[in-house]
Amino acid sequence: MQLNYLAFAIPFFVFFMLLEYAVARKKGKQYFNFTNSITNINVGIAERLSDVFVTGASYFVYNHLYQHYAVFHFTPGILQWLTLLLFTDFIWYWYHRLAHEINVLWAVHIVHHQSEDFNYTVSARITVFQAIVRTGFWAVLPVIGFPASMITTLLLIHGLYPFFIHTRLIGKLGILEYIFVTPSHHRVHHASNGVYLDKNYGDVFIFWDKLFGTFCEEKEEPVYGLTKPLKSHSFLWQHFHFPLELLYSAGKAAGWKNKLQIVFGRPSAISPDVRNILEDTFHIRSHQEPVERRLNRYVVWQIACTLVFLFVFILLEKRLPVLVQVLSASLVLVTLVNCGAILEQRKWIFYLEYTRYLLVLLLVLTYLPGIRIFIGIAIAAIVSVYYFKSLQRYYLNLVYRAY
């Protein structure tokens, strides 16, 4: 059986998230906020899911460039691996720096900085858009002469290191502070304090920042998150609020020159008032009242089940038909949107629950084809449509006890 062993990254990361939570709790440190952690993990689930469809495409791009445009042809060896590591980290530094300085790139990176916590769950905040853009930057590696197999292998290792620097439990690390990016360095990078803004872009090595003048030492406890906090748990709004702010601002600008200056300018060029306008337009609000514990449990169960489902899906994805992959991916994405909507206590979550119900029926029909199964599912679908309003009232009363 052909299995995708990258699925084991899920229990690996979850284990260390839970370990960090247990250690922080034992030390009496309030480093985890429930809603922030859930929204962080939601973004991470979406990224793991998207990797199923994107990783193969990235390998194809690297391999095509290597086969047709490589200046040199390096073979694996200690020196070649070390050189590739330095090149990869150097390119990452400049991608990361430009992603903070150019609006069109910040639009795909901003999601990583939205959390007002700083722990291992924050490392999960990577979007498929960021993965695609980074592929464009790293595409220079096969042109230099590194084969696709070396690049993808090193990127897996290179991507593992940053997970462990998203923590407040580890202090400064002595001499290592001069060579590697440490948790202390990366806490500065995630800070919204004025003195810390746009500092410490390195991923593995810190000497790039020292070389190019973007290094800053951690001297006081940072305040984490955006300079203008998002204040929304919506999965969709987290991903699309800044692209919408960018489009709105560019649309209001007079002349193409001014529009391009906004698109390719710095994030500070976007007025903070734009988000307020768009939040009113799309009725975005943060639910300020505490979410009941039973709703928290409901969300946790959804996330736990989704993680198990995602693990199995990635493990077996090479054996799954395309239709099953599409239905499974849709089911996961609807669940992620649903969790954010519950945390904000939206009434329209029933439509998401109903969509999940229909997706499950389609998955069952796909795996258990037959006239009896088809008739049973058709009856279940018809009954659910006929009693839609009654089911909606019952569901909202059950979940929120307020409608």
Report on the structure:
With 403 residues, the chain is mainly α. It has three domains: 208 residues, no CATH class; 43 residues, no CATH class; 108 residues, no CATH class. 64% of the residues lie in helices and 0% in strands. It has 17 helices and no strands. α2 packs parallel to α5 and α3 crosses α4. The chain is globular, with a radius of gyration of 23 Å. 29% of the residues are buried. The model has no long low-confidence stretch (mean pLDDT 92).
Give a quick set of tags describing it.
403 residues; mainly alpha
Question: How is this fold's topology laid out?
Answer:
Blueprint: H1 9-26, H2 34-69, H3 78-101, H4 103-109, H5 128-138, H6 140-144, H7 148-160, H8 183-189, H9 207-212, H10 235-252, H11 255-263, H12 273-281, H13 293-316, H14 322-343, H15 349-367, H16 371-386, H17 388-400
